[in-house]
Amino acid sequence: MQFSRSTGYGAHSFARDVAVGLIIALVSIPISMGYAMVAGLPAVHGLYGSVLPIFCFSLLTSSPRFVWGVDAAPAALTGGLMASLGIALASDEAVSLIPVVSLCVSLWLLVFFLLKADRILKFVSKPVMGGFITGIGMTIVMMQVPKLFGGSAGTGEIVDLVRNVWFQAKDGFSPLSFSLGAGTVIILLLSRRFFPKVPMQPVLMFLGALLSVTLRLDERGVAMLPGTDGGLRGLNVPDITLLKGVSRDVLLSSFTMAVVILSETLLSTTNIGLRYGDRINTRREILAYCVGNAASAFSGCCPVNGSVSRTGIADQFGVKSQVMGLSAAVFMLLIILFGTGFIRYLPVPVLTGIVISALIGTFEFRLARSLHKADKTEYLIFYAVFFSVLFLGTVYGVAVGVLLSTVTFIIRQAKPFSEFLGVVPGQEGFHSLSGRKGGVYPIKGVVIYRFSGPLFYANIDQFCSGLEKGVTDGTKVVIVDSRGIASVDVTASDRLLMCWRKYRERGIKFYIAGHVALVNEQLRSFGARELVEEGAVRSRIKFALSVAGIEEPYECEAEYQSSSSGGAESASFSFDLAEFEWAFGNEAERRMDTMAAALALQIENGGAVNIDFIRAHETYWNAVDEDIFLDILEKHLARLEEKDGEREEGRLNAVASLHARIEEQLLRGNEQVLRRLVHERSLRDKAFRTRHPDAYKKIELERERYFAEIAMTHPELARTLARIIAEEEGKKD
């Protein structure tokens, strides 16, 4: 049994974990019974599967807070297997065969433990798992929908399930049943949002039983769970002779269940462990999953796994150890011994609503939305797996997901990201010429090419062709930024040597700079020793430039014009925000605007024009950022004054004074930076003048004061600014 390492564990923590165990047991009553029915077992078997399996898991797991039990994915897979074999749900045949399936799952997990299968989990991507779990969840929801209005659960894929819902609704629709079921779903979804710490599932379960007794719902056509005798049944010994004739189907499906249990539970356990700094032993976890499923088989239940939804509930109540799991198992045992009489009073629509709301909580559509913004390929993989599960079934969904992940991995390795680099006057380092930044310039006569991935036979052609695109008649030096190249194979080594010789014949110096020492060892081993011995490898780009006779300050060519849609000139607010934009990307402008609006409101309420707080708390902040921020702040202040219809002397003037000091500092660095600032300011001025003409007049007045001030205190800056502004105005004309 594992305890949390985050805090000391005492009597108070023990008492709280016992209380959390009671809550988990109460929540597990409707959920475990519902999922047992999904798997094809009588509802009470879900309670049987919530005692010994949870107890065994809690003793073995290395996670102090993860909850184990009857849950969605294995239940759905088991129910799908029963349907494919033509075995009726809750039949004697299902009751006998399903524990055998659990035993097979346990054996597969034992094989995974012996093979140290936790090491291959890195190849199961989160989009694949998210699409798979969401597809399974959606399938089970559609299976269960008819039970909301008095029908029976469906089987098959999504087309069959939709057809089943339609025809059952036509044949017999109970408004009272539907009101109970749909109301349960709505209440649970709303309580999850507004009262997340209230365990509403057991509350609604007991409320449903109360309504059943007081209103005699069974006499009004509402289906009830079948009653069951109290008491703990003996251990169930799985009859492996039942595999005769169905062994292939059972072994394949149980393998899929084992993979899903391993992937879903281990990934979730690792994630929550990282959040709290828990030490998770992944091999020990697999052994716990193995023993937990063996215990489920001998309890007469379906395969079991970790419950993300119930783990979330336990986490909300501050669980610290698996005392929670042990106490949950003990409380469930007491319920089985003394409290099963209430089962016959539970309305099926209420229990179904609890199951559906729990399943909705497993949907990963939020992950899909974030993937759509960040990585379209991963987004497509998510939905490819999702729709494969819906239309083809779970086994095919797994196959499609693994295939797509493998193909994507190969493609990304074969075609890594590459780009050309330049310099920003007045700043250290080398920057992308084709990213969001503006103000980046190529070094005259130099091509710096970044390649972010291992160099091997599948991508060396892309490397060579991409590099050649940047070489022109005026190129004197070619430098490969190899910081992202961790290894080279024999094919790549040979081609690099050929590139070096080819460029040498053309009078171009060729260098590879920034890689780890292992790459040099590989070059020597694979027949490209000449590159190392002739000095074509360097530890830094700066050193390569120096050896080529190019020293700082670097002479730059005209600003790079990117051909891509995301180039430097593609956006109206494209000026280099230096580290700030590099850190926050597309959010940089919005973030800066929000900070300026807050400071403007603070100043309006009597505060001083003081940005020391931002300087102290913004990690990514420099003079360029600050000048742009002051420009935005100036406009917020002017707009507030326009709204109030009054003007307090000194606000805008204080901002203008800060502008003067910063712009003088920037001018000492490089005039190009200041020129670019003026250009971008003119773009913002144009938009602001159109929307707020009166406020802009206030800014113009303050700028006149500003120029008058700097003409006296900083005449050189005033002359330079006047010249730059005149040139900018000339461009407009």
What does this structure look like?
The chain is built from 30 helices and eight strands. With 733 residues, it is mainly α. The N and C termini lie far apart (77 Å). α3 (52-60) packs antiparallel against α11, α6 runs parallel beside α7 (158-171) and α6 (126-148) runs antiparallel to α15.
Main features:
733 residues, mainly alpha, 6-stranded mixed β-sheet, two-stranded antiparallel ribbon, 30 helices, 8 strands, 63% helix, 4% strand
How would the blueprint of this fold be written?
Layout: H1 11-39, H2 44-48, H3 52-60, E1 68-69, H4 72-84, H5 92-114, H6 126-148, H7 158-171, H8 175-194, H9 200-215, H10 247-276, H11 282-298, E2 305-306, H12 308-316, H13 323-338, H14 348-360, H15 365-374, H16 376-392, H17 394-414, E3 417-422, E4 431-432, E5 446-452, H18 460-469, E6 477-481, H19 490-505, E7 509-513, H20 517-525, H21 529-533, E8 537-538, H22 541-547, H23 578-584, H24 588-604, H25 612-617, H26 623-644, H27 651-669, H28 671-691, H29 693-713, H30 715-732
Helix pairs in contact: 1-4, 1-9, 1-13, 1-14, 3-11, 3-13, 4-6, 4-10, 5-10, 5-11, 6-7, 6-14, 6-15, 6-16, 6-17, 8-9, 8-14, 10-11, 15-16, 16-17, 24-26, 26-27, 26-28, 26-29, 27-28, 27-29, 28-29, 28-30, 29-30
Determine Rg (CA atoms, Å): 34 Å
What are the low-pLDDT stretches, counting only 5+ consecutive residues below 50?
560-577
Shape: globular
Measured distance between first and last alpha carbons: 77 Å
